[in-house]
Amino acid sequence: MDIRFSGVSKIFYPDITALEDVYLEIPKGEFVYLVGPTGSGKTTLLRCITREVAPTRGQITVGSFSLRKISRVDLSIFRRDIGIIFQDFCLLPHLNVFENVAFVLEVLGAPPREVKERTGEILDQVNLWRRRNLYPPQLSGGEQQRVAVARAIVNSPSVLLADEPTGNLDLHTAEEIMQLIMSINALGTTVIMATHNQYLVDAFRQRVIGIRAGRVVRDEKRGRYSLDGEL
Amino acid sequence: MGSFKYALRDGTRLILRHWGLAFLTVITSMAVFYLIGASVLLVLNTRHIVNVLEGELSIQAYLAPNADYDAAARAVASVNHVTRVVIITQDMALERLRQRLPDRADVLTLLGENPLPSSLEVSIDRADSVESVVNALAAIPLINDIVYAGNLAEKLSKFSRFAGQFSLAMLFVAVTASAVVLFNTIRIAVYSKEEEIGIMLMVGATPTFVAMPFVLQGIILGGVGSLGASVFLALSYNGIITRLKDLIPFLPLLDRSTVVFELGVILVGAGATVSLIASLVAVETFTRRAMKPL
Ligand SMILES: Nc1ncnc2c1ncn2[C@@H]1O[C@H](COP(=O)(O)OP(=O)(O)OP(=O)(O)O)[C@@H](O)[C@H]1O
Ligand SMILES: [Mg+2]
After folding, report:
1. Residue A20: inside a domain
2. Are residues A104 and A207 in the same domain?
3. B209 touches chain A (CB under 8 A)
4. Arithmetic mean of pLDDT over chain B
5. pTM of this structure
6. Within a domain: residue A40?
């Protein structure tokens, strides 16, 4: 699904401008880093794609969906094709690791056997199979992060939105997660990853979109984390 | 059908998780539906009694000596609420008396010329029109005297009408009360899973899918409550009716098993419907708000 922003602005009540006049084209299958100082609007941009946030001005289309006027049922159908790694994980504390991942598939009405198989597979991939019966509060930050990744990719979405997916990981684990996300991308999933991780951005070179104070200030095909030492 | 299985699993989990609340909700809806059922039974029974009494209700209008039967009958038949007029001639009256006193034929022959007056047997449609019919009959000059069974039936019929209205009002209050209790219980359950619902909606669960466990929870609670109410109602109605039959043997009460069974079916149906609506409203308002973008 191609993602297109045209003239998108978001002003939070009363007068916080989180995005300003953003034009973007992200073709299907692309890998994009979203970089910028804290508070620059990265999370807000991602939340516009999931329609948690409605732009004050401008249009967003994702594939055949125009997000301005979308019915509730269409929105659900649309969201099934979007995997999200939230900046703060958003794991459910009273479900164990397995259930946290499995319930994404249950929501889609997948038969129990398939849910079990697929969840097992993905937990294996993120090295959490042995932790499957633990609850999120019993996990380390990095383990929680991996559960969040597993949940986002378990139903092989067309678009993966990753908000700081390596925030709590040591370099080694961060690289592993990164490899995982890139392998998903190699299968055709569009990935938009907001990150402050300079090492990763510079090691795995991809398209970089830089935003400052809600504006897109640079967009490079094979960019680096910072330009002239500035974000 | 996977979705339904998940909904059933999550619905029962919800009940177990909030078992205290579930228990209170069941008790409340049980009490409410018991009240509804009891007042319906009261109404049905007074209606029934009134109907039976009405069927037996007739006014005797004694005619003046030598009055023209047919003219009198025509006059009476034209009175409002009169459904049937039967002419009882002097001879018929005597014959009836003879039948009533079969072994006293001798006494009757002693009477000589027939001293019994001719009369009209007037049937009317409703118990509470007795008074007006009697007044109208009194105004007919051919009629000498009027005898009727007093206004017991009329009072009963008024009571029955009042009972009907009262229980309708009760019904309304009770259904509203149980709907509110169910609504609140479901809403508490919804809020306890606020986070989970939020994430479910983010990963593409439809509002219907999200609502199902809660609606099931509501239907189970409301259904169990009204079912319990029906069972208690059947037990207590049987007890009361046997007691009453001993006390007032001639009181025409409704046959027990079928009436209570039908009422039970209706109560459970009503309970399930009320809880379906209450829980749907509770979840829907929530998901609607949760899906609204910032
Ligand atoms: N719901 C909201 N209401 C009001 N202001 C908001 C809301 N969400 C975000 N903002 C504001 O919008 C701006 C952009 O926030 P956003 O979360 O998009 O930044 P970010 O780039 O993701 O930052 P970080 O790198 O720290 O995650 C901030 O100034 C923030 O305070
Ligand atoms: Mg952010």
Report:
1. no
2. no
3. yes
4. 79
5. 0.72
6. yes
